[in-house]
Amino acid sequence: GQNIDQPTEMTATEGAIVQINCTYQTSGFNGLFWYQQHAGEAPTFLSYNVLDGLEEKGRFSSFLSRSKGYSYLLLKELQMKDSASYLCAVGNYGQNFVFGPGTRLSVLP
Amino acid sequence: DVKVTQSSRYLVKRTGEKVFLECVQDMDHENMFWYRQDPGLGLRLIYFSYDVKMKEKGDIPEGYSVSREKKERFSLILESASTNQTSMYLCAYEAYNEQFFGPGTRLTVL
Fold it and tell me: Which of residues 18-37 of A touch B (CB under 8 A)?
């Protein structure tokens, strides 16, 4: 099975850096994905990791350690518009993705 | 940009009604998915499809069925809607190792 855990809620200040963790137990997957979802909207893709290590994409970075069953999403220079839920998912191309429960991030002025 | 559309943003139905949720993608992608999303439970996969007339059960298929008669259209069917099927329903297709989501249908069953 694939059990994915994320913190339920986080709060951070505008301009700060926040790290959202994701731990998983799975028998194998191709990629670890991060999605952003604003309230009432569909999830949108942020990043994915196939290999261990850090993937950087502007203000967002994602890290994966397969041996530790661990990933994180790093958001830098937080903006108010970053207030959203962040979903971690493990997936195999051509098969289903399994999503974590999501972390609701609130960015305060 | 490839788009995926869902037939309704908001839908209200009564217990026992048959409900059809339609999802259409405007490209030739093979893999399509139906999820429901509930507070505290995240996204849960109901069914997915690899190609026309092909379907696979996801994690919570009970109470649902699907139809894929054309590659661009993947329909979710609630044969007899129940109140515990009140939820946000999200359709997605897969391309380039990513899943792209439609806008979602918020279904309320009274």
Answer: 30-31, 33
